[in-house]
Design brief:
The complex is a heterodimer of chains A (116) and B (137). Chain A is an alpha+beta fold. Chain A has three helices and four strands. The radius of gyration of chain B is 15 Å and the shape is globular. Chain B is 33% helix and 36% strand. The chains are: A alpha+beta (116), B alpha+beta (137).
């Protein structure tokens, strides 16, 4: 990995881990996001993995919270659930020029089932 | 200029996605996947092929577009859009003829030109809401 890629990784990791940036990290263009954020409370963000190639960086982030509201027809269970988020960054000269995020729901859905 | 290993790996993954997911060439797994292939979503190579046949039955015109692809070392991460018309049973939903469009990510490991490992993520809730007609693609 080049020095630039190492720097870009560090810039992105620091941004995600700084809770000041929480609001920016919850923005996506998915229709489901508003309902998802309503349904999962006390959200904690943790960087799981980072891939960097030249100016592009993609982070895989775990978002752990409490299933405290209705999501996709699934009533609150009160349980702790973990959502995967991917967030892609364009980093130039150590500065984040653009980023976009996306929530996975495939691994979330089975966690919302009532306990049998 | 010689291609970097990352560029070669990105090309391998893009070629596999085109052959397997777009051309529906199920036998392409023989060319692209290693003999010790590890499948995290569908249990095995056979599980992957079965899943692909099921998706093809549900969305016979399915088409995948690579929106972003990044390689680092032996890993390749790709963001795709899948578009398809709901023409077969999907998660218990009878065919509706509705258009769907969903984002997914797949992470591959590539060693010596062969794909050795795969893990995937998809916004299944959005896809199901489109199938049920609660949101439009």
């Amino acid at each position: 990995m080049s020095i630039i890629e190492q720097t870009n990784r560090a810039v992105v990791t620091a941004l995600i881990e700084d809770s000041v940036n929480r609001k920016a990290l919850e923005n996506t263009d998915q229709w489901i996001t508003a309902q998802l954020l309503e349904a999962i409370s006390d959200r904690q963000y943790a960087v799981q993995d980072v891939l960097a190639q030249e100016e592009k960086v993609i982070a895989r982030i775990s978002v752990t919270g409490t299933h405290s509201g209705m999501f996709a027809g699934h009533a609150a269970t009160g349980r702790s659930v973990t959502i995967t988020q991917f967030r892609e960054f364009h980093v130039v000269d150590g500065e984040i020029r653009a980023h976009r995020g996306w929530f996975d729901t495939s691994a979330l859905l089975p966690q919302l089932q009532p306990q049998s | 200029m010689m291609k970097t290993i990352e560029q070669q790996n990105v090309e391998t993954v893009a070629a596999f996605i085109e052959a397997f997911w777009n051309q529906n060439d199920m036998d392409s797994t023989e060319r692209f996947l290693s003999s010790d292939y590890v499948e995290h979503n569908y249990q095995s190579k056979e599980g992957l092929e079965q899943f692909a046949r099921n998706i093809l039955a549900s969305f016979p015109d399915k088409a995948y577009t690579i929106e972003e692809i990044v390689g680092e070392g032996e890993r390749v991460l790709v963001r795709m859009t899948m578009r398809g018309t709901h023409q077969g049973v999907f998660y218990g939903n009878a065919p509706t003829g509705r258009k769907t469009e969903v984002t997914l990510y797949r992470e591959y490991h590539v060693v010596g030109g062969k794909i050795t490992e795969h893990r995937g993520w998809i916004d299944i809730v959005t896809l199901l809401l489109q199938v049920k007609g609660q949101i439009t693609a």
